[in-house]
Prior knowledge:
This protein is an alpha/beta fold. About 50% of the residues lie in helices and about 5% in strands. It has 10 helices and 4 strands; from the N terminus they run βααβαααβαβαααα. Strands 2-1-3-4 form a 4-stranded parallel beta sheet.
Amino acid sequence: MPQPQQISHPQACPAPPFVVLDACVLMSTVQRQLLLRVAEQGVFQPIWTERIGEEWRRNAERVWQVPPEKLANQWADMNQRFPGAMEPNTDPYEVGLRYSDPKDFHVIAAGLARRARCGLQRPPAVHVMTWNLKDFNRSELRRQGLRVCTPDQLLADWWRAEPSRLDAAVQAVAVDSVALGHAPEPLADTLLRERLCRLKRLATEAPAR
């Protein structure tokens, strides 16, 4: 007697995680361009706010003496490339935050707001990407269902999961560095200067799968 055929239903692929890009992550042009290229590959969904953008532009103008009009154009380009990245109103989601640095409540709130408003029955993971880990209380974020990581941590995680999706974006880093006036150098050296040590080991010491 023939056995009834089992019908397999395709499982929906999980949505890429939401990642709030803290202002400090945007400071390096090489790193910013790398992250945006990775986002364009669908590896993650970038999130930011006007306040994050203002903080980045203010600091870049002060530290790197970048003309404000150039920064404004770069910010406009980011928002054009990722029209869904802007989170407009995070104030209600700062209520209840206590243990992280108050000046960074708005960064955490951007992730909470996006998860609440995304309209998905099962929202994807939400990460805060920052170099200033000390300003974010990990226990507090964990209770909120968020994870805080450096760019190096998340890029390394994504590379381990699917290096083929990141390879072209990472290889372009050396070209970006030269375009900004640095002398040509091995990719490994550029990644080290960008503090992407884990990614450097994965991307330059082992072939992409």
